[in-house]
Amino acid sequence: MISTLPQTLTLAMPAIDGVTLHHKGLNYLRPELLLDFVTISEQPMLFVTPVAVLYSTVGVVRYVNLRRIPVAVSGRVIYPICSQALPDLRAKLIINTQARKLKFLESLVAMREQPTASSTKVIGLALEFTVQQPS
Question: Rounded to an integer, what distance in angstroms lies between the CA atom of residue 112 and that of residue 108?
Answer without folding.
Answer: 12
